[in-house]
Amino acid sequence: MTIGILIPAYQPDEKLTALVRQLKDACDFPILLVNDGSGPACDPIFAQAEQQGCTVLAHPVNRGKGRALKTGLEYAVQQDWDGVVTADADGQHTVEDILRIAAMLAEDTDRLVLGVRNLRQMPPRSRTGNTITRLLFRFLYGRWITDTQTGLRGIGRGAMGWAATLEGERYEYETNMLIWASQHNYPMAELTISTVYIDNNRSSHFHALRDGSRVYKLLLRQAGLFAGSSLVCFGVDYGLFAVLSSLLHQNLFVSVGLARLVSSFLNFKLNQHVVFQKRMRMRYLVQYYLLVICIFLANYALMFVLVHLLHIHPLLAKPLVEVVLYLASYSIQSRGIFR
Fold first, then answer.
1. pLDDT at 271
2. Closest to 111 (Cα-Cα) out of 139, 85, 76
3. pLDDT tens across 175-213, in order?
4. In this structure, are 199 and 322 located in the same domain?
5. How many domains are there within the chain?
6. Beta carbons of 174 and 151 less than 8 angstroms apart
């Protein structure tokens, strides 16, 4: 069995040299470095790594951590490796933890293994960002991941192929890997690792605003598509109701029923194809319309409680109920129906 160690590197310093030396002393795993356009000043570092027996792939210009990881994964697939352990070049992943991830991956190469840090030991900025991201991830994708931003990961043979083709060129790529695995019920395991921050993470190339916006844009894309689908179908429902009401001489029951039937089926198809990107299955359709019925009953029940028992004005109660049921509908569809 061949498990390789994949290290993407952009403008590394002597910490990468030390990490390579320690890994070579501790194991005989093949080590693959991806020089992500670091420039001539860093050539001696990569040349020394090659002399130590590492394979070095190079991008002519900086293309981002995601692209560097995918370049390494493509190489690992070509070499028929059974998996890789990805580690950062800045020395914040210990050799012991890298080897523990490799050992855990070797037990089952059809999964992802995530090295998770202790959030309480992180610097405040990293702790806050990680907490927000994992809570959002839990709500949006139904998977509790302790450390969504970890760079220490074991990627088995079963995952290397799809991971190498995922969207994302920079730090958002690692988030997309977790999204894909969650959406497709791909196995993931966690292993607690040391929480190491050198000089308060000063050597990190992560830009809080630029890279953070890419991560959250990707993270929230499915929710945005869901909102767009809902708005489109609301427009169709309203428009059909107006036309049918006029044609059927104010027959309210038929107008509402036909408009809702058409708009709800359109909503189902948009959610299936565009939002959650699933192939058609009859169980999706049955479960979706069961949800529609439950949402309708819950709407009535909540309005009854708020208006008649708590004496809240209907015009105030209605938007509150709609927001709650909208969030519930998204959660049930993403984590249940279209899982």
1. 94
2. 85
3. 999 999 998 889 999 999 988 766 555 556 566 667 677
4. no
5. 2
6. yes
Torsion of CA 63, 68, 74, 76, to 10 degrees: 160
CATH number, domain at 11? 3.90.550.10
Q: Which helix (H) or strand (E) holds 5?
A: strand 3-9
Residue where a domain stops, chosen among 159, 184, 219: 219
* 87 contacts 5 by C-beta, under 8 angstroms: yes
192-to-22, 82, 116, 243, 253 alpha-carbon distances in Å: 21, 23, 5, 60, 58
Name the strand (E) or helix (H) holding 176. Answer: helix 172-183
Q: Tell which of 176, 192, 219 closes a domain.
A: 219
**Does residue 232 sit in the same domain as residue 136?**
no
Q: What is the total residue count of the chain?
A: 339
Beta carbons of 321 and 306 less than 8 angstroms apart: yes
Let me know whether 213 and 229 are in one domain: no
Spatial contact of 156 and 206, defined as CB atoms under 8 Å apart = no
Neighbours of 331 (CB within 10 A): 13
33 and 180 housed in the same domain: yes
Domain span at residue 134 reads 3-219
Task: Please give the pLDDT value at position 269.
Answer: 95
d(CA 230, CA 136): 20
pTM for this entry: 0.82
The amino acid sitting at 218 is L
Closest alpha carbon to 168 in 69, 41, 30, 49? 69
Q: Please list the residues that pair with 153 across neighbouring strands.
A: 86, 114
- HSE on the CB side for 44, CA within 13 Å? 3
* Same domain for 182 and 136: yes
Please enumerate in sequence order all residues whose Cβ is within 8 A of that of 168, keeping only pairs 6 or more positions apart, or say none: 66, 174, 175, 176, 214, 218
Residues in the chain, pLDDT under 50: none
